[in-house]
Design goal:
With about 120 residues, this protein is an all-beta fold. Helices cover about 0% and strands about 55% of the residues. The protein contains no helices and eleven strands. About 30% of the residues are buried.
Length: about 120
């Protein structure tokens, strides 16, 4: 099983980025896909979770209204559209596939937002 996160980069405050999480080795339908981020010196924290079974998506207050998750089951890929980025969004972003009794992590992609 592999999760490949990509799309990070250096942007300015107010810009947008779209991250991708390509999943191989498992069917997206069977998992909940979470997005996490870890800022320098801080613990990794989740901010979004999508049930690929029900389609239910939850967002933390810190990203609600700015970030949007979508999934393409034909490509086994999940996307994270990030708009109106702020310097406090600077972090390494990770995707996670969780089936309850087992989960898998991608390697992370760096997002840096300059003011």
């Amino acid at each position: 099983v592999q999760l490949q996160a990509s799309g990070g980069g250096l942007v300015q405050s107010g810009d947008s980025l779209r991250l991708s999480c390509a999943v191989s080795g498992v069917r997206l339908d069977d998992y909940a896909i979470g997005w996490f981020r870890q800022a320098p010196g801080k613990e990794r924290r989740g901010f979004s979770c999508e049930s690929m079974t029900s389609g239910t998506i939850n967002y933390s207050d810190s990203v609600k209204g700015r970030f949007t998750v979508s999934g393409d089951k034909t490509q086994n890929t999940v996307y994270l559209q990030m708009n109106n980025l702020k310097p406090e969004d600077t972090a390494v972003y990770y995707c996670n596939a969780d089936r309850g009794y087992i989960d898998y992590w991608g390697q992370g992609t760096q997002v840096t937002v300059s003011s």
